[in-house]
Every structure is written in C-alpha cells, then in structure tokens.
C-alpha cells in the first residue's frame, strides 16, 4: 500500500465490505479478535492495548465510534479528530486488519455481526459489564480484559495540551 487511499480501501471497511472479509477469514479458519473505542488522539497506551489485543488471534477488527457517537459519549468538544482521520491512523498500524466506523453508542450490533472468537476490552471492567460479552461467550468465544497503561488517555492529553 502506497497511498492513504489504498490504505483506506484495504482496511477501512463499510458494513458490506466487512461481511465479505469476515466470510473469507472464517472460511480460512482464522481466529477473529474484536475491540472498539473512540481512539481520538492515538497514544502509546492505545498502541500497547491494540498490540496486545492483536496477539489473541489472527485478525484484529476495530469498531470505531463515529463522530456523533463520540460527541454523545465524551461531550461537545469531542472528537478532536474526525472519524476518517482516526480510522486511517488505526488502519496504518501493521497489526490492524480492519476498521469499521459505527454510529451507535455501543458496538453491540457490530459485535453480533462480527461474532469474534475473542472480544477485548481495556481497563478495569468486569466481564458481565462488557457490551457484547454475553453474546460472544454464548457463541463459544472468550472475553479478554487488557490493563491500561497508567497515565495515558486522550482526555489527559487534551488537558495537558490545553494547559489544564
């Protein structure tokens, strides 16, 4: 891949494109990993988390909150970066195989479409509180929780940049 357009075409997928890729990957017997987030300002905490998530399987699929969803979840001043930019940043990572933008506040619909072998969430969640965990487990998958690296968050970066 030599250009941003090629990168976008290869890894930033619509729902239909994702469905096609999923069929291919599942037919090949590949282990699918799914995670999601806003990923507004990409930082080392994100990279560490996503690299760990990718290590749980063969293909890493990221559900990315759309701008309207980020605004509802994080406030009127967010996102800092638009969804197309955030998607390309994630897609540029060699260990990311697909990025899909979703409009809802939770990725439940996307999770049930992907039905990953491994659902990954970061932080101090309990499995029973993770959106989509029940569906994935009921389908024979597993849920892995990855610890965040302390001191790294998009919110803290924004505060630091703005002098707060």
UniProtKB/TrEMBL annotation:
The UniProt GO MF terms for this protein read:
ATP binding; kinase activity; nucleotidyltransferase activity; phosphotransferase activity, alcohol group as acceptor
- Stated EC number for the protein is 2.7.7.70
**Which keywords does this chain's UniProt record carry?**
ATP-binding, Carbohydrate metabolism, Kinase, Nucleotide-binding, Nucleotidyltransferase, Transferase
| GO-annotated biological processes | carbohydrate metabolic process
InterPro entries tied to this protein: Archaeal_FAD_synthase, Cyt_trans-like, RfaE_dom_II, Rossmann-like_a/b/a_fold
Which reactions appear under catalytic activity for this entry?
A: D-glycero-beta-D-manno-heptose 1-phosphate + ATP + H(+) = ADP-D-glycero-beta-D-manno-heptose + diphosphate
Q: What class of enzyme is it?
A: transferase
The superkingdom of the source organism is Bacteria
Q: Where is the Cytidyltransferase-like domain?
A: 34-145
UniProt xrefs under Pfam families: CTP_transf_like
PANTHER family with a match to the protein in the record: BIFUNCTIONAL PROTEIN HLDE (PTHR43793:SF2), FAD SYNTHASE (PTHR43793)
NCBIfam families in the cross-refs: cyt_tran_rel (TIGR00125), rfaE_dom_II (TIGR02199)
Protein name as annotated: D-glycero-beta-D-manno-heptose 1-phosphate adenylyltransferase
Q: Which organism is it from?
A: Pedobacter soli
């Amino acid at each position: 891949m030599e250009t941003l357009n090629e990168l976008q075409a290869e890894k930033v997928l619509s729902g239909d494109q994702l469905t096609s890729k999923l069929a291919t990957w599942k037919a090949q017997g590949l282990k699918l990993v799914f995670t999601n987030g806003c990923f507004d300002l990409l930082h080392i905490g994100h990279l560490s988390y996503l690299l760990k998530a990718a290590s749980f399987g063969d293909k890493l699929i990221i559900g990315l909150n759309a701008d309207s969803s980020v605004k509802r979840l994080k406030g009127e001043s967010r996102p800092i970066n638009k969804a197309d930019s955030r998607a390309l940043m994630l897609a540029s990572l060699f260990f990311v195989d697909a990025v899909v933008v979703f409009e809802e506040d939770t990725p439940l619909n996307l999770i049930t479409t992907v039905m990953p072998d491994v659902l990954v969430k970061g932080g101090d969640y309990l499995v029973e509180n993770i959106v989509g965990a029940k569906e994935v487990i009921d389908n024979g998958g597993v849920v892995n929780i990855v610890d965040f690296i302390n001191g790294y968050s998009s919110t803290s970066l924004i505060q630091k940049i703005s002098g707060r």
